[in-house]
Amino acid sequence: MKWKKVLVCVLVLSLIGGSGLLFADSINDRVRVWLNGRELKDGGYLINGTTYVPVREFDGAVQWDSRTGNVQVIKPNVHIFLFKGDTVFGNVNKGKLKFNVFSQIDSLNNEIYAVKVAIEDPAGNIKDIQSQVIRDPSKDNFWFRTYDFTYDFNTAGKYSVGFYIRTSANASFVKVAEKVITALD
């Protein structure tokens, strides 16, 4: 009699364990996701034929409201122009260059606290160029131009000028747009 109870328990546990593994397999189908030719770091998951991708992968500020269960992704349109004097440029030669960054921001449907422009070298080192608290956080479009600054493009490769937003005084800056500069030998 005792062995029948043991056999039934083993059978029930194996069925539960097997269905749990099947469920886990359907959730853990990882997929590689590419956005504009760049592979997203966290990728995504295929669940019941639908691909799910973390919203933080889309270069926007993510706000979670636990009270309402809502997630907001803040991603305005940002156009970045690089100026050497009055001349717009893209690629540069290795060496020091004095320039400024002009950013045009529109379609901003959320209030933000501050903006920042920074440059990242090919090795991943980031240097802040300029930041500013927004005087009228309810503006849906505005321009932001940095002062002239000198930067040393000391190695050949791709540099990224990023535009960042900060949603509140205690939030971190999040990159929402970038312009790539190639430094040539």
UniProtKB/TrEMBL annotation:
<protein>
    <submittedName>
        <fullName>Copper amine oxidase</fullName>
    </submittedName>
</protein>
<keyword id="KW-0732">Signal</keyword>
<feature type="signal peptide">
    <location>
        <begin position="1"/>
        <end position="24"/>
    </location>
</feature>
